[in-house]
Every structure is written in C-alpha cells, then in structure tokens.
Amino acid sequence: MIPHASAVIPHTRVVKFRADPADVLGVTDELLSVVPLLHALASSGGSDLHVKVGSPPRVRVDGRLRRLQVRDLRPADTQHMVNEVIPADLVDTFGTSHEADFAFSLSGVGRFRVNAYQARGTFGLVFRRVAVGAQPLAELGIPEVVGELALEPRGLVLVTGPTGSGKTTTLASMVDLINTYREVNIVTIEDPIEVLHHDKKAIVSQREVRQDTVDFQTALRAAMRQDPDVILVGEMRDTETVRAALSAAETGHLVLSTLHTIDAGETINRIVDFFPPHEQKQVRTALSQALRGIVSQRLVRKADGSGRQAAVEVMVNTGRTAEAIVEPADAPPLIDLIREGAYYKMQTFDQHLFELVRDGQVTYDEACTVASNPQDLTVELRGAGLVA
To answer: Where's the Bacterial type II secretion system protein E domain (predicted)?
Structure first.
C-alpha cells in the first residue's frame, strides 16, 4: 500500500519551459514532482504524458512520443508522483489492485485523465489532457455529413476506430454542434470525461463512471428517467450496454457511442456478436431500424508536418444498407454499398485518402500506410495522374 498523498507538493527546480519538449526541463537529483512535467506537456501541445521507472518522462506530440530532458526516473520518483495525484479514496484500492483511473486538476494548467499502474514492482502513470470545449468538425477535417448525423433527431450514431484514432475528439465536436444548434437535454456517460462542455442552447450533464455512477449500464438506465433528448455513451463494452443503447435509440432518443472497430462492416458484426446466437437475428433487425450512421476513423500525418488529419469512412443507413445488415448473405457487402453511396454522402477510407492526396493535405506514402487497399488506391491515384 502506498502512503497517503501529501497536501503539499514539494518544490522541484525548473529551468525553463519551451515549445520543444526535447528541451523542456532541467532538474536536480531530488525526487521529481509531476507538476513541472504536466506544465511541459501543456506547453509542448502534447496529448499524453508517460512516466515509468528506468526511462525519462515522455510526451506524445502529434502521435509521437518524445523524451523530456530529465534524468531516468527511479522507483522513488514515480511513487512520489502517484502520491501527489491519487485521490484519498483510491489509495487502498490501488494498494491491492495496483491500478487506478481518476481525474487530476492542476491550477493554471488544466485537467487530466490519469491511469496509475504497477509494472515489475514499480509504479507508472499516464496522463491524458482533458480539453475544455471542442473544435468545430470543419476544423478537424471531418466530412460535413458527420455534422448532419449529429443533428439527427433520433436513432443510433457510432464513431469507431482503434485507440488513439480521434474518436473522442470527433464525438466531442458532435456534442458541441448539438449544444450550439438544438434546445435539448444532453446526458453523457463517460469513462472518464475527456472534454468539458458548457451549456449553450442545450443543457449538458456529464457523468463519469466510478465518480458519478457505478457503470455504463446503471447510468444508461438512470438516464432514461432524466428526460434526455441526446445520450452519449462513451463506449459500448458489453451486451447490456448495447441492449440499453439500442432500446434508447428505438424509443426516440439520439444515442451517440463508440466501438473499437476498424470499419462499418466490422462494427455491425461486433454489435451482433455481443448477443447469443438465438438473439442475433432480432438484433440485426433492431440495428437496421435504429442505426443512422457509422463514422470510422484513422489518423494520418499531414503533408506539411503540422499535425495529423482524420481519414474517415462514413456509412449512412439507407434502405440498401439496412437490407445488408439484416441479411448480409443476400446483399452486396457493406463496403461496396459505401463505395457507391456518394449520393448519400457516403465514402470509404480510400476514397477520402484519394481526396487528401489530391488536395496536397497528405502524402502518397503516408496515405498508403492507413489505406484499406493500398494497391487499389495507387491505381486510382495513377489514373488521375497524381503519382507516377
């Protein structure tokens, strides 16, 4: 068990903060505090801070981990850092389970989602910056149709992709769009809260799992008694959460959620696979009726080196896609329907990547690293005279 966190954070000398995280800190041989490291994360524009024994702290900037100019961390350093930030009510839990998730706020710097863990007998932490407010979808390079899906009055809209693909950022922008244009009640259930929303036209109640509610299922059931118009479920993790989300979408609510799936086809299969075989036909039917669209994302580096851009597949649920969801064996593959669905503003990853390369936003080599079919993308680009 670790000692209780001290109310006073010991002073650690800091030489200078600069925009380049490789030159952020100068330190003494004293125990290192996490405070200057979080300042460094914020000043470098990074998204995450990693601290572990035997290595210097690192910050993730534009998807890449970069070392801070700090000595290798010792076991006493990371234990001290855990003591600085862990809430008192999690000290005992962390002492027995050796992992904990919680939020930490630092005055003048911001709010962070924290995961503390034990590895090979020593402590480590990962901090994720929590944004206040959201960027407009247009600034993210997200297709306009995603905003249209966000403003649907009812139904289920899913944002999918691997970890670190920008799902949370896109969802936050969708919530902000609703908050800006609709006079509705938005209830979010998140683990943890990563973007803070202030009321605009809508009212937004954000609930954090373990902090404000026991789990997603409990909060989702309670949300139905809170007169919601829009419900955001941070992640569909189990059968009961999926069942409750589908039920809410069928009964006139707009439900937004995420899955760790790579495209629309896999997303449908993952949802169906949550259920036992005897229920899967019924689930396919319910999904075909409730679903409004699936937005799948992959991040690709911008050609000018200024950051990353989302490559997006969009499936809008139409009569043909609904048939493919109910009877996949008797209908064309979803990917073909998406490829041919330009009238409904659908697009595949490779169609979006073609546009990004054509417009000079992404290089050909970078596009090929995330393309679903790099060979087909190359043929299309060569046919348009965009690559040799």
So the answer is: 224-238
